[in-house]
TrEMBL record:
Residues 1-30 are annotated as: Disordered. Keywords: Hydrolase. Signal peptide: none annotated. It comes from Streptomyces neyagawaensis. This is peptidyl-tRNA hydrolase. Gene3D superfamilies: Bit1. Its EC number is 3.1.1.29.
Length: 248
């Protein structure tokens, strides 16, 4: 399994939402047919995106997909979205460049653009039913760097805090940031969801200060616990979703 994959799905847990599909304990969702949300990040050799921007763009892409009119009600993607959320919430990040990216763009989906990053998110697909244009894309090779350290996050902006003690490839971290964003979305009221969407889903992804991390994980904010099938130990807390509307 590659660096950007979460094929067994990081099991995300939101302590505030008992009816959330992101609970950590084993449920009927483990027995349901498993679907995956594909994300493709554009990584051109000459101009790769900055790591933090790629993580933030991936998180926004998940939110855009969740809130798109095609994903809800009787929308054309709604059935796939329901099937995906009835099972474990899996996300896999693959990379593309050149002609690969153009082929990916031709498939139904949504491209979200950051400062330097482009991420395309697609409706969920069965684990064994990937479109060939996406199935051939590589999972490995998503390591990215920040040319300059990211600036401090605005306290008024939702922040997805990464565990400072867990090393993750950019692809893995993109999937984890997407989990965190999705947990925050599920815990928000309809009013707060609408406000976040209308603002364009502003958010930041930052690595937490080691001294602050224990407090974040016990704050009651949504957190992501990884199932441990790729890269990191099972049960590791990877992301805390710190949305201002969810702070106690």
């Amino acid at each position: 399994m590659g660096q950007g994959a979460d094929p067994a799905a990081s099991r995300a847990y939101s302590p505030a939402a008992q009816d959330s599909p992101f609970r950590d304990e084993r449920t009927a969702r483990d027995e349901a047919p498993q679907f995956v949300l594909p994300l493709v990040v554009r990584i051109e050799r000459a101009e790769p995106p900055a790591r933090t921007d790629a993580l933030e763009t991936a998180a926004r892409a998940v939110l855009v997909m969740l809130s798109d009119e095609r994903s809800v009600g009787s929308g054309e993607w709604a059935e796939a979205m329901r099937s995906w959320q009835d099972a474990r919430i899996r996300k896999v990040v693959r990379r593309a460049r050149g002609a690969e990216w153009r082929r990916a763009e031709a498939l139904p989906g949504i491209t979200v653009t950051g400062k330097s990053a482009e991420v395309r998110v697609f409706p969920p697909v069965p684990l064994d039913g990937w479109p060939k244009e996406l199935a051939r894309l590589q999972v490995s090779g998503t390591d990215l760097d920040d040319p300059e350290p990211p600036v401090d996050a605005d306290p008024a902006t939702p922040v997805l805090w990464l565990n400072p003690e867990v090393a993750m490839s950019a692809g893995k971290a993109m999937a984890q940031a997407g989990h965190g964003a999705q947990l925050a979305w599920w815990d928000l009221s309809d009013e707060d969801r609408a406000a976040w969407r209308e603002a364009g889903f502003p958010l930041a992804v930052r690595t937490a200060d080691p001294a602050r991390w224990p407090g974040l994980t016990t704050s009651g904010l949504p957190l992501v616990r990884d199932a441990g099938f790729t890269e990191i130990a099972p049960g590791s807390c990877t992301v805390v979703a710190d949305h201002p509307a969810l702070r106690g």
